[in-house]
Amino acid sequence: MIALDTLFTQQQPDAISATLDDYGIIELIGADAESFLQGQLTCDLNRLSEQPFLYGAHCDPTGKAFSVFWLVRSAQGFLLIMNKSAISGSLAQFKKYGVFNQVEITDVTDQWHISGHFGESIALPDVNENTYVIMLGEQPKQALVVSQTTISTEYPQSYWDALEIERVRPQLTAENSQQFVPQMLNIQALDGVSFNKGCYIGQETIARMKYLGKQKRALFRLSGKAAEVKPATELERKVGDNWRRAGTVIMAVNRSPQSFDLLAVLPSDIEQDTPIRVKGDDDSLLEIHSLPYQLG
Known about the structure:
Layout: E1 16-19, E2 23-29, H1 33-38, E3 53-59, E4 65-73, E5 77-83, H2 87-98, E6 104-107, E7 113-118, E8 131-137, E9 142-147, H3 157-166, H4 203-211, E10 217-225, E11 234-239, E12 242-256, E13 259-267, E14 276-278, E15 285-288
Antiparallel strand pairs: 1-7, 2-5, 2-6, 3-4, 4-5, 7-9, 8-9, 10-13, 10-15, 11-12, 11-14, 12-13
């Protein structure tokens, strides 16, 4: 079995497969489903004519994200794949506005098996109306599989989450729902925000942050020693001889005893060599890594 402390983007495995028990799915069907989603999400659904899936965020009217998702067109409508704990917030918001549209909105998590696969020799099922394969990256090759048939897997979800953390591609959990504008999660750098598709819920705040240069926070990958780290854990940075609030953990994986890899929202202008620790854990020490992409 491949060790979890392996950096998968540097030492690409042959094949790793994991059942993603923490993920769930919202389905939208109906005559107005596409236009309804176009007015709800940060991504541009018109691009589904050019590409097989979209990455994006679903926000409240203040521009704070309920969830981050992958969206795929299904045989009946659309599937939004996201962290299971974030579904309730997005579902309630969709249903609030959905009453004015011909659209059915349902949590269909129990109808699908969600698995993640990555490596240089991954075996993937055939695509049909009951199975969707979303290719998410290279080096290593990475795919998200959504199927109404159970797919056999060999590893726990922590392996998938570790690769997502290395790629600095977040998923929001309920603990951080409605806390961050998408740019604070780098969603725009991952092609998940359209600035020219027109109006959608939260668009005013998101556009203001881009065009008025008001972005003060961004997402970073950190790693190091800590007793415990989980979503919504608070971090501190060293300022002189003191420690001050630095930011909030979005995702975390325990890669080896007392060694964590994590994503956290920090000040966007933070120096990479700034010492970071977990609030309340004086023995912890975390290092900030360079981003694998440009923020833009």
